[in-house]
Design a protein that fits this description.
mainly alpha, two-stranded antiparallel sheet, 2 strands
């Protein structure tokens, strides 16, 4: 998501100093959100057996309660949504700049557009990865619902 934001900001505002200005803020937000999520998971799982970890002979995984599902699904869906909006807007901007580039071709513009397109492809892969991590969560959550909830 950070790469999506950086790329979008650079293309919209045309300011290449975004990473220098926002690096500490972005790092702090990432670390603080991770710490808050971990502490809340520890506090909420103190009452469960084995701290909410299901132990089997093959692996260990988190318990399948609704809190764990929604605690992962809601932030991930919001990240996908925001990154998708920024990536789509970036794609439109890059497409318009590519059309302008066809009129007046030069080497430095081609290099800059190539870098931006590679970052845009990386953002698309990131969104795809986030969506692929949600699919097993939704399938396992759906299979744990009681049969009376089906129509």
């Amino acid at each position: 998501m950070v790469i999506s934001f950086y790329l979008w900001y650079v293309l919209v505002k045309q300011d290449l100093e975004i990473e220098k200005r926002c690096f500490w803020w972005v790092s702090a937000i990432i670390w603080l959100s991770t710490i808050v999520y971990t502490i809340s998971e520890i506090i909420l799982s103190t009452n469960e057996d084995n701290w909410g970890v299901l132990i089997s002979s093959f692996n260990c995984k988190g318990s399948k309660n609704k809190r764990n599902f929604y605690g992962y699904a809601i932030p991930t869906i919001s990240l996908v949504f925001v990154a998708l909006i920024m990536t789509c807007h970036t794609s439109v901007i890059l497409y318009n700049r590519w059309k302008k580039f066809n009129d007046n071709m030069n080497r430095t513009t081609a290099i800059k557009l190539g870098r931006a397109v590679r970052l845009n492809i990386l953002c698309i892969l990131y969104i795809t990865y986030l969506l692929f991590t949600l699919i097993p969560r939704f399938i396992s959550h759906h299979s744990n619902l009681p049969s009376s909830s089906y129509l």
